[in-house]
Amino acid sequence: MRIVWNMVKQALVGYAVVFSIAGTLLLVIAGWVVLTPVLRVKHLKTHNPAQTLYMKGQRNWLRSKGLPDTLSHRFVPLDSISPHLVKAVLAAEDDGFYAHPGFDIRAIARAVEHNQNNAGRRRRGASTITQQMAKNLFTGGKRSFERKYRELAYAVLMEHFLGKKRILELYLNYAQWGKNIFGCEAAARHYYQRSASSITMGQAAHLAAVLARPNHLTPHYTESGLLQKRMRVISNNLYRRRSIDTTTWRELGGQDSLLELRATLEALQFEGAQSRESADTVPTGETDSAGTTHRVEF
Hints:
The protein is an all-alpha fold. The chain has a single domain, classed as Biosynthetic peptidoglycan transglycosylase-like (Penicillin binding protein transpeptidase fold). It has twelve helices and three strands; from the N terminus they run ααβαααααββααααα.
């Protein structure tokens, strides 16, 4: 009996050792799984990658087409990028950028509803700028729920550890603007022969419109229906946020009945204010009750 009991004790001890080792390994693996994304994101606070995962994939795609795989890319700090371009890109890609925590629930809901009601047509996306950067840097573009969950996790981490300013700086510097053009500085020099710091509002809106399909669009091909559609979205969002005036809105192709009504009402208010100002001015040579003669200066 004692021999059996000793064998049982030895077996229990062996199992305890095995389970202890297994538990330790599981904890180490779990810690690595959780900690690795955090470290990768925190590294971006001070480090500008030579290329993103998406850029690497684009180089492979260019080689598969028999094209040169050299990419045009130059990093510039956010304060060296025209505010016009910053506003236009936000209007094009993520109008609620400063209001969401890395993902936009309302945009996701609208996209799901649209895609369900328009099966077989081009799907509408709902990725924020933060999610786009998470995909380009860390997760790749493979269509799967697992990849989407990882993208959301990275987006939340980026918002927490990097902040809006750094995320926007990274996006503007690593977004694709052509088959082999990445970053706003390379795009500005390629399309307009000037630096990103001196881009005008009109040029900024056209560049932002290209982001929808950078392998197919160019800011100079204004006859493109897709480019015109994107220009309407961008100009409407800019005008809605009062980043541009009515004249610029119309020049950029803005069209929206409510915004048109606002423009009309504001024009009428301006004319009314001008009329009141003119009515309040005493005509030249007219004498007031105090006997003073007033002069109108032109």
